[in-house]
Design brief:
This protein has about 750 residues and is α+β, with helices and mostly antiparallel strands. It folds into 3 domains: about 90 residues, Complement Module, domain 1 (Ribbon), CATH 2.10.70; about 240 residues, von Willebrand factor, type A domain (Rossmann fold, 3-Layer(aba) Sandwich), CATH 3.40.50.410; about 270 residues, Thrombin, subunit H (Beta Barrel), CATH 2.40.10.120. The protein is built from 12 helices and 38 strands. The longest helix is centred in the middle third of the chain and has 20 residues. It binds 2-acetamido-2-deoxy-beta-D-glucopyranose.
Length: about 750
């Protein structure tokens, strides 16, 4: 054993390069550097507004020399591209060089109108802030395509079929389209070019915004029911179309296991976010080095629409599964996409209706397999993309990481569309992760039920956007003031408990607050209180039940509708199409019964309610709905309630139309308190929230104000079950929800 260890140790030291590169030569003037653990790589950092020259890293080469060893490293001041040409106006000041914080001012000549900012500032990443400023006389068929700073333009005809072409100043690389043509629809072909320096990276914020809105456009345009609304390009997916999403992750040697895991993480974040919207794409996930590995393919129809399964498969995949990592076979990866599409065409009669999104993440240029753009052209031809109207069926987004990429290669692969961007160059994988964390901000899809902004990571203090469906009702009677909770179900209706109101309460006694805290508060008066017709507290006096709460449901109709926002949004109700989307039962012609089976079939169902921890400070409480045999304990504890001491059969008081939580098995459920009445009992599915109950009454009340005492074991809470009330809800709210039978 000992010997073996020694031997293997020896073998190791022989295999390792003896020629370590000399660290004395790597220091950077004006900055700092880090050496990797194996001593083979140096990474430079410079203060803000500076960048490492000649490169951000150095590798120790086989000959014992660093890359670029002869050139001394230095932190140079970041420069933004210099304006070369401008049309229809003037740029000032004209200088030889522009550094960070320098400002350019634009002015248009008479007869020309300005589009874009009047001034632009040189940013730390070497880009001018904002979009290209354009002075346009609006005389052409197409609007003036503008001239990006750093570029020159040839071609001045903006008539149909007029062509323009661009060149970047020396030393700058072009992203986007070199030539563009004015099309009949008054748009230019391709995408706006930009000229950038080698050290220019897209910031996470820029990527989140630009990629997010481009992606939103794509997803939205796949929606057959979409309503044109150009004012807001953010995601507003209501019913999704058919879509394939290909995720391609570079797993070559330079990526390394840590970055590869971050890339996996980015892929799963992306899928999670996309899956919280009302549409179900098919995923294909592959990784590549010299060879291609398939994690999920387009033909695995049982799993490729299940976000959770796809995420699991990605998580299980190991970097080490690429045993030969030397190559970067980008073309091979795109060829695999082509192959999967070809196969799908044979099996899928809706093939041509699918839009396709390809997302490629890479940190290098291809070094085998040949030119990847050949495969892109094959895919385009195969999907019949060349006809303009099918351009929206394919979007290829490319994310280049670090400085070893080839900007030209990535630009060739990426889609080029007017007013969109598909190629991004980021400093490193962490920057990309940050961008993806921000993409598809949930707040934009306000109309979708049961969605809230995810605050899992940041400021948990501000719960305004976490429980946006909670409503607070204040009932001011001649005799005093009481308050209840409710849930927003549509723009005009709040669902709450009928017992919150006396039979003679009038609508004007009630005030509704929406938006959980002071800061976000919206208030409404009430037009009408609708109680469930079967709610009759005195209905079972003959059975010695002094107060009977079955169908403890009421709908409060607002005097004026509310506009949904990030802090005021609806919850999902079962038996509506919104819930079908939320639980992804769209394709199965889901019925109300399907929802019930999905949500409430187990003996113990994890659920939650929202309680006020202190004034305006909401808190989520996890409880378990007890059903089947687990429910027997609920009935036993209900029998112990003083008011029910003369009840012969407790099931007369606690009918099947109540959901029960509380008790201490399998864990102690927190108790609802008085002010919680009328609030929703919720089941969470992924990022979506579905209301199954309305908080009605409990066996024990040990709350003191906001404080919860230790809960006795016999404490049970009963909630009016929403599903049996849905027929009535449909009667009252006919138009604002789509119901299932
Ligand atoms: C740039 O223009 C905006 C208005 O478009 C103005 O508010 C801002 O003050 C200007 N900045 C500078 C530095 O002039």
């Amino acid at each position: 054993m000992m010997l073996l260890l020694l031997l293997s140790g020896l073998a190791m030291s022989i295999a390792a390069p003896i020629d370590q590169c000399n660290l004395d030569t790597v220091a950077i003037a004006g900055g700092t550097y880090k050496v990797s653990e194996d001593g083979e790589q140096v990474e430079y950092s410079c203060p803000k507004g500076k960048y490492p020259f000649p490169s951000a890293t150095r590798e120790c080469q086989g000959n014992g020399q660093w890359t670029n060893e002869k050139q001394k490293a230095i932190c140079k001041a970041v420069e933004c591209p210099k304006p070369v040409m401008f049309e229809g106006g003037e740029i000032a000041p004209r200088k030889a060089k522009y550094f960070v914080d320098d400002v350019l001012y634009f002015e248009c000549w008479g007869g020309f109108t300005m589009f874009g900012p009047e001034n632009r500032t040189c940013q730390e990443n070497g880009k001018w802030s904002g979009e290209t400023t354009i002075c346009d006389d609006q005389d052409g068929h197409c609007p003036s395509p503008g001239i990006p700073i750093g570029a020159s333009k040839v071609g001045t005809s903006y008539r149909i079929e007029g062509k323009v072409s661009y060149d970047c100043q020396n030393g700058l690389r072009m992203f986007g389209s070199k030539t563009r043509e004015c099309k009949e629809n008054k748009r230019w072909s391709g995408s706006e070019p930009s000229c950038r320096t080698a050290y220019t990276y897209d910031s996470p914020e820029e990527v989140a915004e630009v990629f997010g809105s481009s992606l939103a456009e794509t997803i939205e345009s796949s929606d057959p029911d979409r309503v044109e609304d150009k004012s807001d390009r953010k995601l507003q997916v209501k019913t999704g179309g058919l879509m394939n999403i290909f995720l391609i992750i570079d797993a070559s040697k330079s990526v390394g296991v840590k970055n590869f895991n971050t890339a996996k993480n980015i892929a799963t974040t992306f899928i999670e976010k996309v899956s919280s919207f009302d549409f179900t794409p098919r995923y294909s996930v592959l990784t590549y080095a010299s060879h291609i590995k398939r994690i999920v393919t387009l033909s695995e129809s049982e799993i490729n629409t299940e976000a959770e399964t796809v995420i699991d498969a990605i998580k299980r995949f190991k970097y080490s599964e690429h045993d030969d990592k030397q190559g970067t076979n980008t073309r091979g990866a795109l060829q695999e996409v082509y192959n999967q599409l070809s196969l799908d065409q044979l099996r899928n009669d809706k093939f041509l209706e699918h839009s396709n999104i390809i997302i490629l993440m890479t940190d290098g240029k291809h070094n085998m397999g040949g030119d990847p753009s050949v495969e892109v052209n094959k895919i385009r031809e195969f999907l019949d993309i060349r006809k303009d109207q099918r351009e929206d069926k394919l979007d290829i987004y490319v994310f280049g990481l670090g400085e070893d990429i080839s900007q030209d290669e990535l630009n060739d692969i990426a889609s080029k569309k007017d007013r969109e961007k598909h190629v991004f160059q980021m400093e490193n994988i962490d920057a990309l992760k940050k961008a993806f964390d921000e993409i598809i901000d949930e707040t934009s899809a306000f109309e979708m039920c049961g969605l809230s902004k995810d605050h899992s990571e940041e400021d948990t203090k501000d719960n305004n956007e976490k429980y946006p469906w909670i409503a607070k009702l204040t009932i001011t009677r001649p005799g005093g003031v009481e308050s209840c909770k409710g849930s927003i179900v549509t723009k005009n209706f709040i669902l709450t408990a009928a017992h919150c109101f006396h039979l003679d309460d009038e609508a004007h006694f009630v005030n509704v607050e929406l938006g959980p805290s002071e800061r976000a508060k919206v208030t409404r008066k009430v037009k009408n209180i609708h109680r469930h017709p079967k709610y009759d507290p005195n209905g079972k006096k003959d059975k010695n039940i002094p107060k009977f709460f079955e169908y403890d449901l009421a709908l409060v109709e607002l005097s004026q509708k509310v506009d949904f926002s990030s802090t005021v949004r609806p919850i999902c109700l079962p038996c509506t199409s919104g819930t079908s989307w939320a639980i992804k039962q769209r394709d199965k012609a889901a019925s109300c019964k399907d929802h019930e089976n999905f949500l409430l079939s187990k003996d113990l169902v994890k659920a939650l309610f929202i309680s006020e921890k202190s004034k305006n400070n909401l808190e989520q409480m996890t409880v378990h709905i007890k059903q089947g045999n687990s429910r027997l304990g609920c009935l036993k504890d209900a029998e112990k309630v003083e008011e029910f001491k003369d009840v012969v059969d407790i099931k007369d008081a606690v009918t099947d139309n109540f959901l029960c939580t509380g008790g201490i098995d399998p864990s102690v459920d927190p108790q609802t308190c008085k002010g919680d009445s009328g609030g929703p009992l919720i089941i969470q599915h992924g990022k979506r929230y579905i209301q199954v109950g309305v908080i009605s009454w409990g066996t024990v009340n040990s709350c003191k104000g906001y404080k919860r005492e230790r809960v006795p074991a016999t404490s049970r809470d009963f909630h009016a079950s929403v599903i049996p009330g849905m027929a009535w809800i449909e009667e009252i709210i006919k138009d604002e929800l789509i119901y299932l039978k």
